[in-house]
Backbone:
């Protein structure tokens, strides 16, 4: 867990969502993949567009890690 995740208040943490098995099928670490998808969805829900450079960079990092799993 990185530093920015620890700073989030409990009420600001991403809500757990139910994902279709086709999005987790074949993943080497299903739990981590779901966690990353929750974080990405939370950013899309809370941040206003256009996204700042820092938010874009964080999204890119999260999506890159998600795609590796």
Residues:
């Amino acid at each position: 867990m990185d530093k920015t995740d620890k700073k989030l208040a409990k009420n600001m943490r991403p809500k757990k969502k139910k994902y279709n098995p086709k999005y987790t099928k074949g993943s080497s670490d299903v739990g981590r993949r779901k966690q990353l998808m929750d974080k990405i969805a939370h950013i899309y829900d809370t941040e206003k567009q256009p996204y700042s450079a820092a938010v874009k960079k964080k999204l890119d990092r999260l999506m890159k890690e998600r795609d590796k799993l």
Observations:
- Residues 40 and 59 are 7 Å apart (CA to CA).
